[in-house]
Design brief:
alpha/beta; 12 helices; elongated
């Protein structure tokens, strides 16, 4: 009897898990490509089959919940690959309600009801007090899909909604797994496997928050640099306002000779190179010296060093060629306006030099070719197409790693050296 009820519940779960992401994505106006009924039905079959396989191989063990969550995410990501993040958010909202129901009802069953009924009635009590309430909740979820969509829309519209949703979902699985371990009779192997998973999850979580903090610090420093630049512009506006008033006075008094001299002075003053380089660390560092020697052509450059790269076992000459080639290439790409941010930092045994610019995205077709000797997107010349090839060779010679990533928002060259 319990096996039949469990099979029915599994089918209902598969329908709920498949239907709610399908409904949310079809209703979401941000999703360009809508799903169809064939994909919806196929996803339900795939989820149902996956749950049956996991149930028959792993059973109701401590790691079953985590395995099912990860498997469901993978299946939905495959079916809704163009909008995988939104599909997974919809699933996580669904799974959250189902997990909370399982945790609450399971603890009531294991902690209270099972202790006050005869042993021969445990199976019946599990059906009455656990399976039937769970199936009722799953039915209510389908009937209240519009309310679930509102929760999904609230999370999916946030910048970090996808990441936060995954953290919450895995955290609930961990809680459910701990509950299984406490109330069940798990093998030592499964307990150790869960401990390993928990350690990996916590490590990823810590690294994520460290990365988020670094990004927040970077944004804070950029905001400060922007505020400083805004104050400079206000000063320039004030100075030029005074000059214009004075010039207007000379014009009214017909002092044309003095007016001409004043205008020449202003023109000559504008010929000097403006200070577009903002040093947030040491102005005497290697990178600061390198950047100050480059013609930035009006591009704003921010240098933020949390690690002194002079401590690396690399010659200053090699560092100069690596950084100057990347920065010069970024200046050329940006043209007459833009921002370049250079950061150095240390994580564990690695030192990172990150050079990021807000220029146009590098096409996926050519991003792997930009380090090839002679490859260039600029007008061909004797010196074009070799700067980044030199960078790659120097990084390799010094036992480093060079990684480039490019999005619509920024392009980043990341150089990694082991200490």
């Amino acid at each position: 009897m319990l096996k039949i009820v469990n099979l029915i519940n599994t089918l209902i779960q598969a329908i709920v898990i498949g239907y709610i992401p399908y409904y949310c994505l079809n209703k979401d106006k941000r999703v360009e490509e809508k799903s169809n009924e064939i994909k919806f039905i196929t996803s339900i079959i795939a989820i149902f089959t996956m749950i049956i396989i996991i149930s028959n191989t792993i059973g109701t063990t401590s790691i079953a919940s985590i395995s099912m969550t990860i498997s469901c995410m993978i299946i939905l990501a495959c079916f809704y690959n163009r909008n995988y993040d939104k599909a997974i958010v919809a699933y996580i909202v669904t799974a959250f309600i189902m997990q909370m129901s399982s945790i609450i009802l399971g603890n009531i069953q294991w902690s209270y009801i099972q202790n006050i009924i005869p042993i021969e009635s445990v199976e019946l009590s599990t059906i009455i007090f656990m399976y039937i309430p769970v199936m009722i909740i799953e039915g209510i979820m389908i009937l209240s899909v519009d309310k679930i969509y509102k929760i999904y829309n609230l999370i999916a519209s946030k910048k970090y909604g996808f990441t936060i949703a995954i953290i919450i979902s895995i955290s609930l699985d961990v809680i459910l797994t701990i509950s299984f371990i406490i109330h069940g009779n798990e093998t030592v192997f499964l307990k150790n496997l869960f401990i390993i998973f928990l350690m990996v999850f916590l490590t990823i979580l810590i690294l994520y928050f460290i990365n988020t903090k670094n990004k927040m610090d970077e944004i804070s420093k950029l905001n400060q640099a922007l505020q400083d630049k805004n104050n400079e512009l206000k000063k320039v506006k004030h100075d030029y306002g005074s000059q214009i008033s004075y010039i207007n006075g000379l014009y009214i008094m017909e002092q044309y000779d003095r007016l001409g001299n004043i205008l020449k002075g202003i023109i000559n003053g504008n010929e000097s190179v403006s200070d577009n380089i903002k040093i947030l660390s040491s102005s005497d560092s290697i990178i600061s010296v390198i950047v100050n020697a480059i013609d930035s052509k009006g591009i704003n450059i921010i240098v933020d060093e949390d690690y002194d790269i002079s401590n690396l076992n690399i010659s200053e000459y090699d560092i100069q060629k690596i950084i100057s080639n990347i920065v010069s290439n970024s200046v050329t790409v940006l043209g007459e306006s833009g921002l370049i941010v250079i950061k150095t930092y240390k994580i564990f045994g690695n030192v990172y030099i990150a050079i990021k610019n807000n220029g146009a995205k590098i096409d996926d077709e050519i991003i792997d070719k930009i380090f090839e000797p002679g490859f260039t997107t600029k007008e061909r010349g004797s010196e074009n197409g070799f700067g980044l090839a030199i960078v790659k060779e120097l990084v390799k010679v010094n036992q480093g790693e060079l990684v480039v990533s490019s999005t619509d928002d920024f392009t980043e060259f990341k150089i990694i050296f082991k200490i």
